[in-house]
Design brief:
The protein is of the alpha+beta class. Helix content is 16%, strand content 34%.
Length: 382
């Protein structure tokens, strides 16, 4: 048994042994779980993929005379201003009022991360204490008061692969899906993915320090649609939608290498977010969890047309091979997330820890292991 405090002392003294989620597989194979758990202090994970439920809070600062902003756009993308006078939240998937699906909240966020100027337009009805009714100016991450990322749902534990049963091409948040099961897309980094290395959330919880967009961030709550009560394989990994994380971090410290806007053809805008989470190896069981292989991670597949309920499953080893046998034919597979960038994130986080620049934090509260996901029903209004 090791404690997080003991591991942090080793980090401070430059004696911590850190391995990425890929490296630990080979170490465990050579040394066995018990000895590997004694040797290794931290395993770093990484993922870089589309995370639509992301956005940024901004406090713009007060003008003279002041304004109580009611309708706010940033580069013609609406932001939500139903907060205090000069606070707003811009979501990644919001579309431009002038450019439609060519530009959206994800692009504004990427430009803010890059330090570029963004056009702010705000309107108000005017009050005695906030008499100004309109303002046009530019803002950037250096001249606003606060600007921080708050993402309500990131790092899905095991998102299903996607396909299309219909006779026409469909355009979805899982990419373009060809007719009659013509292709399969997926969006999880497999054995590198954070929550697949801690399937029961033994070390990841509220207050956990993470890599977020190139900066230090934190897990702030369970993510929306968090639903860990799913069927699990013998290794503890759920085979379908399960846990999610709400995360936050200072946008000023982030990098456009790990925060990227994306346009989905005929669907809309998303934001690629880079997340890495360090897993403290507190005992042999945690070591075993982090040594999970792509061949041992099973995921379900969903028909995104909604017409057919599919029972088939695949391992990430199969999906990452580029093609699978599905319903009597060879079907191409393609990732939406970047395995290369996920690997890079795990490597950067490893360097931070080895260099004493990143200490671990113990969760102040665990993520729940039971949740019920409700479906929206139409009640009383036509």
């Amino acid at each position: 048994m090791k404690t997080v405090a003991e591991i942090n002392e080793r980090i401070k003294n430059g004696r911590a042994v850190v391995a990425t989620a890929e490296e630990i597989i080979e170490i465990a194979e050579e040394q066995g779980y018990r000895k590997a758990a004694e040797m290794v202090d931290v395993v770093t994970t990484g993922t870089f993929g589309p995370m639509c439920s992301s956005g940024v809070f901004i406090n713009f600062g007060h003008s003279d005379p002041p304004i109580k902003m009611q309708r706010v756009t940033l580069n013609d993308v609406p932001a939500y201003a139903g907060l205090a006078a000069v606070d707003a939240y811009i979501g990644a998937t919001e579309l431009s009022t002038t450019r439609g699906m060519e530009y959206g909240g994800g692009h504004v966020i990427e430009e803010l991360v890059a330090g570029r100027d963004v056009r702010l337009h705000a309107e108000a009805h005017g009050t005695d204490c906030y008499p100004r009714k309109e303002i046009d100016t530019t803002i950037n991450k250096y001249n606003v008061n606060q600007i921080y990322m708050y993402n309500p749902r990131n790092a899905y534990q095991n998102y299903p692969a996607a396909t299309n049963s219909t006779k026409r091409t469909i355009h979805t948040y899982m990419g373009t899906l060809l007719p009659e099961f013509g292709n399969i897309t997926y969006s999880t980094s497999g054995e590198l993915s954070p929550l697949l290395n801690d399937p029961y959330y033994r070390t990841i919880g509220l207050g956990t320090s993470i890599f977020l967009g190139g900066a230090r961030g934190y897990v702030t709550w369970q993510g929306t649609q968090h639903n860990p009560g799913q069927k699990r394989a013998e290794n503890g990994v759920p085979v379908s939608l399960s846990g999610t994380l709400a995360v936050s971090g200072d946008l000023r410290e982030m990098s456009t290498r790990y925060i990227k806007a994306a346009i989905y053809d005929k669907y809309g805008i998303s934001l690629f977010v880079g997340i890495g989470i360090p897993i403290p190896i507190i005992d042999e069981e945690m070591l075993a969890f982090t040594a999970v292989r792509n061949s041992g991670i099973i995921t379900s597949i969903a028909d995104k047309s909604g017409n057919v309920r599919l029972d088939e499953t695949f391992t990430y080893e199969q999906l990452q091979s580029g093609s699978v046998e599905f319903r009597g034919k060879k079907v191409k597979t393609a990732p939406l997330s970047s395995i290369g960038r996920a690997r890079e994130i795990a490597g950067v986080l490893k360097e931070w820890i080895e260099g004493g620049r990143f200490l671990l934090t113990e969760a102040v509260e665990p993520l729940p292991m039971e949740n019920k996901i409700n479906k929206l029903e139409i009640r009383g209004i036509v």
